[in-house]
Amino acid sequence: MNYKKILALVMLLGGIVMICISLYIKSEIEQGNLKISSAQSKVNQGNSLFSMSPYTKSMGQSMTGGAQKKINAGKAQIQYYTELAEQLQIGGIVLIVLSGGLFLISGKKKKK
């Protein structure tokens, strides 16, 4: 086996690993989205309970403000990991295609 075929196999394995990691990240993102939507609905419910009068509205916002900050931070993290998963998936596909091309090129024999 020549070095081009070995390189093609390493690239193929790297591409597969990158796609598997991106799929794992996407599944974790889905779980995170469910948790954030649940927390957001609870915060919204708390805000709606305290928004009955102007006096309790500020008190409700101060009580739910910390939770809202954590929710916003979670949304930012989800955005980061979504972009990372997309980049890993694209990179994995590119590596798989390149390894296929390299494997085909390395299989051709030179004519004398």
Helix percentage: over 70%
N-to-C SSE string, H for helix and E for strand = HH
Overall morphology: rod-shaped
Our measurement of the CA-to-CA distance between the termini, rounded to an integer number of angstroms, reads 20 Å
What is the beta-strand fraction?
Answer: under 5%
Largest sheet: none
Task: Return the domain count.
Answer: 1
Q: What is the helix tally?
A: 2
Structural description of this entry:
The protein has one domain. The chain is rod-shaped and about 85 Å long. It starts with a helix and ends in a 5-residue tail after the last helix. The model has no long low-confidence stretch (mean pLDDT 87). It has two helices and no strands. The protein is an all-alpha fold and 112 residues long. Helix 1 packs antiparallel against helix 2 (54-107).
What key attributes describe this structure?
112 residues, mainly alpha, 0% strand
Give a summary of the structure in a few sentences:
By secondary structure, the protein is mostly helical. It has helices at 3-50, 54-107. The protein has one domain.
